[in-house]
Amino acid sequence: MALTTLTGNITKTEGAKRSPNFTSLEKEVLVDEIVANLSLLFGQFTTKMTPEIQSEAWGRVLLKVNALGVVPGGRKLSEIKKKYQQLKSEVKAKGAANKRELNETGGGESALSQLDDLQEKILSTLPTVSVEGIFGGFDSSDKPTMKTTTARNHVPRCTPSSRSEEDPSINESPRPTKRKLPETTLYQLQTRQVTLLETQVKELKRIGDLMQQRNNIEEEKLKLKRKKFESSQFPNYISN
């Protein structure tokens, strides 16, 4: 919290103490951890890649940086994110400067800004379009184009007229063949009908026999029930 003191007409403000600058070791650990967890930190959200998983990954990066003990109480997550964005901007700025140098003077290696080891690691995480012009790359507009010529082998085409002159049989259209159907006489039809009728008669007779057997069984059941009833009602009569 800022403290304000008044001394006459002079106003003096004492702001909160700023965190110290990142050391080289802090920046190295920060970049190494981000490169190792790049897909978790900057990947698109899916069913398997959730905001919670991304937050946990950033938390691990923060722990690794704070484990160095440079800042008492540790740095905040917003600090390390801001620092990484700053480092990326520096790499892109060098790329833009190199591109201008190439376009204006066509300068050699000595005129281009070189990248240190840390910046090379950051460069490996950036899309190609973001680092176009950095030393070692090339402008897409300067890509050499290669023209190639292909020789075509002339193959004489065979027209229908020339083929017909060589082989007259080609002009002959195939004759349709008639399929010969089997002949069926009236006697054969009548024979089939008789056979079907005989089959139906046999089936009806079989059904009739089954029904007769069922009736006989039911009749026997009724006789047994009747006999049982009479024996229970007239026991003396049955015994005599």
Report on the architecture of this protein.
This protein is mostly helical and 240 residues long. It folds into two domains: 20-141, no CATH class; 186-239. Helix content is 54%, strand content 4%. The chain is built from eight helices and two strands, in the order ββαααααααα. It has helices at residues 24-36, 38-42, 51-66, 77-104, 117-123, 160-166, 186-233, 235-239, and strands at 3-7, 10-14. The chain has a two-stranded antiparallel ribbon. It is elongated, with a radius of gyration of 51 Å. The model is unreliable at 1-14 and 135-156 (pLDDT under 50). InterPro entries: Myb_DNA-bind_5. Residues 18-96 form the Myb/SANT-like DNA-binding domain. This is Regulatory protein zeste. Self-associates forming complexes of several hundred monomers.
Question: Characteristics of this structure?
Answer:
240 residues; mainly alpha; two-stranded antiparallel ribbon; 8 helices; 54% helix
Count of the separate structural domains: 2
Q: What is the number of beta strands?
A: 2
Share of helix, binned: 40-55%
Residue windows where pLDDT falls under 50 for at least 5 positions:
1-14, 135-156
Major sheet, described briefly?
2 strands, antiparallel
What's the total helix number?
A: 8
Through-space gap between termini: 127 Å
What value does the Rg take, in angstroms?
Answer: 51 Å
Shape: elongated
In round numbers, the mean pLDDT is 75
N-to-C series of helices and strands: EEHHHHHHHH
SSE class: mainly alpha
| Strand line-up of the largest beta sheet | 1-2
